[in-house]
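Q: What does the predicted 3D structure of Putative phosphoesterase look like?
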Amino acid sequence: MEKIAIISDIHGNMPALEAVHNDIDARGIQRVFCLGDLAGKGPNPAETVDEIREWCEVVIKGNWDYYLSEQSGHEVLMWHQNRLGVERLNYLKKLPIYQEFYISGRLLRLCHASPNDLFHRVYLSTEKNQRLQLFEATPTLKAEADVVGYGDIHGAHIDHFEGKTIFNVGSVGNPLDISQASYGIIEGNLNDKQCGPFTISLVRVPYNIELAVAQAELTNMPEKQDYIDELRTGIYRGLKHKL
């Protein structure tokens, strides 16, 4: 049986990333996969990209990684791009958009939002036919997935329907459900097509939110107060309730 930690949506928040890193190390988990959105929103884009590159075995592209590496002209993007530099932006641009493999007889697919579309956003309330799109066959293995894990929406959950399982690992650095860092752990027989025991668990890690706020306060980054408010409340900017 092998354990893999799955993190997502760090968004330039180093105190949160360090807390999650410490928790994963304390559990003795050696393999870590990242589902994207390494930078953007938070004050430490270069530091988070560097740590993820060194630490994570698999890194998948998120929508913010796409924005930062392939778009220009917007004030928010420019602030983060200037701190990332050309080499890191090239790294983000080359990231794959999904990873899939067998574990305990199940084809498990990992992506940021969707395996074929970085902007296909799926919530628990999304219609079933749109959620099922995440399981459709990809060119890689040409088979429907049994389990899909994703990030993007910053809200952790596990759901079962149509004989399949979907789970969201939430956000390390910008959670919008509970104001604690979130990540997932999967456990099973890796690269084994024979059915066996399989576990998905979600982990919440308290971290020093006020340190993250203080680091943001030291910068002149755009939309700083929106970011700070989200860290403290777990409520998406512009909304009066949690997602």
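A (community wiki): The structure tokens above were generated from the sequence. DSSP finds seven helices and ten strands in the chain. Residues 2-233 form a domain with the Purple Acid Phosphatase; chain A, domain 2 fold (CATH 3.60.21.10).
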